[in-house]
Predict the 3D structure of the following.
Amino acid sequence: MKLSKKGEYALRALIDLGIGSEVGRSLLQVTEIAEKEKLPIKFLEQVMQHLKEGGFIQSQRGKFGGYRLARPANQITMGQVVRLIDGPLAPIGCVSQTAYEPCSCPDEVHCGLRMLMLDVRNAIAGILDRYSLADVVEVTLRKMRRDGVPLPFSQSARTSHRTATVVALVQPPSARLEPVEGLINNLFSDYAI
């Protein structure tokens, strides 16, 4: 499974809508999301339409229109979104649960490749289906607050947009990336028992 640009943009847009909702802006314009994420607006509009058709977001027309989540963020899993945009999570058809296709192997039950790819599919699905949009938004906001970064789409973000851009450009790329393990650790790091 490889996440397409369309899948990446869909997830980033949904995370932004979730953040917007958390900072009191349940309705965001596509131009705001495109500007924040540095995405091509025409392509993002197509992605938003696909998300709308999939039931993840709603649109409101008019001068003050925009997009909002169609259901609570805790009811949207990352796996649902990836499947909508990019199709099955399985690397080969014979291990897919949503789009099974028999392979050319003469003995599917004892096929070592199938067994390996089934583990790959299960690992990917396990992570993407475990985390909801609300989980990802919570971790993102917690890290932004910890680092003193103005929250996007909030009033304070509008006034310090230039400062945040300079800080992001000065940081080395490794400081901006966080692996999945980091996401998992961040989810529970504030909840010491």
About this structure: Residues 112-130 form the longest helix (19 residues).
